Amino acid sequence: MEKTDMKKWTPVQRLWGFLEKNTPPGSNYKKLFCQLVIILLIAGLFAFLSFLTGYSSAKRVLYTWDHGEQVLREGAQIMDIGWMMRHGFKTAFPAYAAFCIGVGAAQLASFRRESRSIYLMKRLPKDEVLRRSFALPLIALLLGFALAVLLANLCVAIYVHQTPPQALPEQVRLWSYDYLIFVKR
User: Do 41 and 33 meet the contact criterion of CB atoms below 8 Å apart?
Assistant: First the structure.
């Protein structure tokens, strides 16, 4: 990357410059970062689609058919949102976090084997090897956390806005109006 005034760089150029300084020398950090982002998007898509599957089946139970028209059942309550989010969010994002940690450990271990020169890394300060090995996976973990929070808020917004108010559990009616981001009815 050419040395120019960093104030003129775009955010992507700044990211590449940061990663170039904080990843192991000779590593293909752009390719690895793109692969981690693609895996993150797949994990997020899995979590969101598993929520939508659970939500659609829970919402379908609320209604009955009367002369070809959908009618809300008397006293019907939708399942808790935690039940609908548990499979996707408790599977996809922890698996992604474990994968990111594994990538960092693999980068660290690659210097102990023939694939990368440990002598090049021994010239660096002691904590530099760890920092360079785990900088990219930690950035990917932060992106994963941000995506998980965004998707959780999206799922809660869908849950609160698409469910008839009388079918929402009482605790959801209370906390959805005061505490959640993007959920005000």
Answer: no
Per residue in 127-170, pLDDT (tens digit) is: 777 888 888 999 999 999 999 999 998 998 899 888 888 888 87
DSSP class of residue 183?
-
The residue written with tokens 């998980």 in the block is 148
Q: What is the pTM of this model?
A: 0.80
Taking the C-alpha atoms of residue 36 and residue 143, their distance in angstroms, rounded to an integer, is: 10
Residue 182 has pLDDT above 50, yes or no: no
Q: Can you tell me the distance from the alpha carbon of 99 to that of 75, in angstroms, rounded to the nearest whole number?
A: 44
- With tokens 């530099």, the residue in question is 128
Q: Which helix H or strand E contains 174, and what residues bound it?
A: helix 170-175
Q: Dig out the tokens for 36 from the structure.
A: 């981690």
Across the strands, what pairs with 63?
A: 72
